[in-house]
Specification:
Blueprint (H helix, E strand, L loop, with lengths): L1 E6 L5 H11 L7 H11 L14 H6 L6 E6 L4 E6 L7 H8 L4 E7 L6 H12 L5 E6 L8 H17 L6 E4 L23 H7 L13 E8 L8 E6 L4 E3 L3 E5 L3 E9 L8 E3 L3 E6 L10 E4 L6 E12 L5 E2 L3 E6 L2 E15 L4 E3 L3 E2 L3 E15 L10 E6 L2 E12 L4 H12 L8 H8 L4 E7 L6 H13 L5 E4 L1 H6 L12 H17 L3 E7 L3 H10 L5 E6 L11 E3 L5 H14 L7
Parallel strand pairs: 1-3, 1-4, 4-5, 5-6, 24-26, 24-27, 25-26, 27-28
Antiparallel strand pairs: 2-3, 7-8, 7-14, 8-13, 9-12, 10-11, 10-14, 11-13, 15-21, 15-23, 16-20, 17-18, 17-22, 18-19, 18-21, 22-23
Helix pairs in contact: 10-14, 12-13
Length: 591
């Protein structure tokens, strides 16, 4: 069982863990004496924390910087104790440690009382969904083991925890340094009738078997091996919940593509017919569909994740600069990565005091409930349903700057379109030619290259020169999809007024989807494509296979553009830039 130990800096977490290891006989033989001898040699007072703080800079500064994992046994079971840092500068490390835990001990110094990070860590445990928490009021020897000190801390902190919907299992008075109330009840605390720390640990319940939950496997990669005429196309990832067997029907979200499990693969291991949560695995499919990294594979007959580009979340911000509206960030949910912007701040809370603050940005160490707008749809679960696909992190440029939980899916206006796409994929009549065979024959992956920009900016000249260069120099199977051709042909039944523009865009996406299924590089133009229309095109084709090129002033508000072109630069240079992008995206091979 994984237990995390958290609390304000210098409140005795490492000492508690070190003494627990020593008193349960869990240390390697001679380790305790080795540390005592080292302390004597360096004229340092012996501390049980030194058993844990292995890094030299940690011992010199006397603080835990990284999360240390140690193992010990009680008579009931085996434990992994995660000693998380208490210093405010290392909150990222604390969160990464706590995210792996099933229960927590939160340590408060009886002499110092409740401090800033005592509250902040309590809030983070609540956000991470850790419900089994015991509060350890440590260093009771410093206050003469007085009940009134313990009662005051318990009363104040219990009120705080109630406000953040966290009900602790117990408040335990103890002295980690003296070993009082750690393994057995202490005679120095006759007024206390609750469990000692070890008894409390043994009373925590193991998390329910995650294999019994709905199946989720975020796709981490798609692999194909060509040696010895190996034709397998293996979709790989880690099973986060549920179980999967050969023959199961699966759906990949957010794309909605469906297939059936043909085989379950493992590297250098016997063949198997099923796999359960916690295992990294690979599968092959009976019908070869294009699957993107970051898609979530689910079983068809089970509750499915939500799919949207709008998420209501609660996040904790740790970035050096504040999180602000409309600035692009990267959202990472399981294996998915997508550009995201802060759309709306609903409320900001100072996590150390739990006081709402009227802010137009989210500052460092603030907790906020807000709405995020992703550039394309993502698949996710709500935190209270499934943790692995209900948590996320936010990356600001290259740094992990925040993290949080998904509270609610907000409809983004594409629900009807998604249902139509899902039905299309469910009933799709697959070609007998495998997608890999087309890629091998044509020498490139399929792609939908959309050139967009303001009315009056010449996009068609670039698009047609690009088609010419792809076909002639690179030998690509390519086609120019002109909106005008659609208007005069497929779309003649659609009224030519602005209210029907969305239907023109939808049909453009469906035609592009057909060409992509045929393995072509589709080159298309469209004027004044807006954020919502681009999102629709992503839904109908795929974000992975779509390349968005903006020519001239960028009119998008939040959508991600893959390449911005200056029409003044000339057709030759602009075409070269697009070709280089196709090579960088590994759509096109070098000529």
């Amino acid at each position: 069982m994984n237990i995390v130990i958290v609390g304000h800096v210098d409140h005795g977490k490492s000492t508690l863990v070190g003494r627990l290891l020593a008193d349960t006989g869990s240390l390697p033989e001679g380790k305790l004496q080795q540390v005592r001898d080292e302390c004597q040699r360096t004229a340092k007072p012996f501390e049980y924390a030194f058993l844990l703080d292995a890094l030299k800079d940690e011992q010199s500064q006397g603080i835990t910087i990284d999360t240390a994992r140690v193992f010990f046994k009680s008579k009931k079971r085996e434990y992994i104790l995660i000693d998380a840092p208490g210093h405010i500068e290392f909150l990222k490390n604390m969160v990464s440690g706590a995210a792996r835990a099933e229960a927590a001990l939160l340590v408060i110094d009886a002499e110092e009382g409740i401090q800033e990070n005592s509250r902040r860590h309590g809030y983070l445990l609540s956000m991470l969904g850790i419900r089994q928490v015991a509060v350890c009021v440590n260093k009771m020897d410093r206050v003469g083991y007085k009940q009134e000190v313990f009662d005051r801390i318990q009363k104040e902190y219990r009120v705080f925890l109630k406000e953040i919907d966290l009900e602790p299992r117990a408040f335990i008075p103890l002295s980690a340094l003296e070993g009082e109330n750690l393994i057995t009840p202490s005679k120095k605390l006759p007024w206390y009738r609750g469990p000692a720390v070890l008894e409390m640990l043994d009373s925590f319940e193991k998390s329910p078997d995650i294999s019994a939950r709905p199946f989720r496997m975020p796709v981490q990669g798609i692999y194909k091996f060509t040696e010895d005429e190996d034709t397998r196309r293996i979709v790989a990832g880690r099973v986060e919940s549920g179980s999967l067997s050969v023959g199961d029907s699966v759906v990949f979200l957010p794309s909605g593509k469906r297939s059936q499990i043909k085989t379950i693969e493992a590297f250098s291991a016997p063949k198997r017919t099923s796999v359960t949560a916690g295992h990294s695995t690979g599968v092959t499919l009976t019908e070869q569909v294009y699957v993107n990294r970051g898609d979530v594979m689910c079983r068809v007959k089970e509750p499915l994740p939500g799919v949207s580009s709008l998420l209501r979340v609660k996040l904790f911000w740790m970035g050096k600069r504040p999180m602000v509206l409309d600035r692009p960030y990267k959202l990472k949910v399981a294996a998915a990565q997508v550009s995201v912007r802060l759309k709306k701040i609903e409320r900001v809370i100072d996590a150390s005091e739990l006081k709402p603050a009227a802010k137009k940005e989210i500052g460092r160490h603030d907790v906020a409930q807000c709405v995020l707008q992703a550039a394309s749809a993502v698949a996710f679960d709500l935190m209270h349903d499934l943790e692995a696909t209900g948590r996320f992190v936010i990356v600001d440029e290259v740094d992990i700057a925040g993290g949080g939980i998904i509270l609610e899916m907000i409809e983004d206006g594409h629900d009807a379109l998604r249902r139509q796409v899902t039905e299309r994929e469910q009933k799709w009549d697959f070609s007998v030619v495998e997608p890999e065979e087309r890629t091998k024959r044509y020498g490139h992956r399929p792609a939908f290259v959309l050139l967009t920009g303001k009315v009056g900016v010449d996009k068609k000249t670039i698009a047609k020169e690009l088609e010419k260069r792809l076909f002639g120099l690179h030998g690509a199977a390519t086609y120019f999809l002109g909106m005008g051709n659609l208007l005069r042909g497929l779309n003649t039944d659609v009224e030519q007024h602005r209210l029907e523009r969305h239907e023109h865009v939808r049909r453009m996406g469906e035609v592009a989807h057909l060409f992509l299924d045929a393995g072509l590089i589709v080159v298309a133009t469209g004027s004044n494509i807006n954020d919502a229309e681009l999102s629709e095109l992503h839904e109908m084709t795929s974000r992975e296979g779509m390349v968005v090129v903006n020519v001239g002033p960028n009119g998008f508000k939040s959508a991600v553009v893959d390449l911005n072109l200056d029409p003044v630069a000339g057709t030759e240079k602009n075409v070269r830039n697009i070709l280089q992008l196709l090579k960088d995206r590994k759509i096109l091979r070098d000529a």
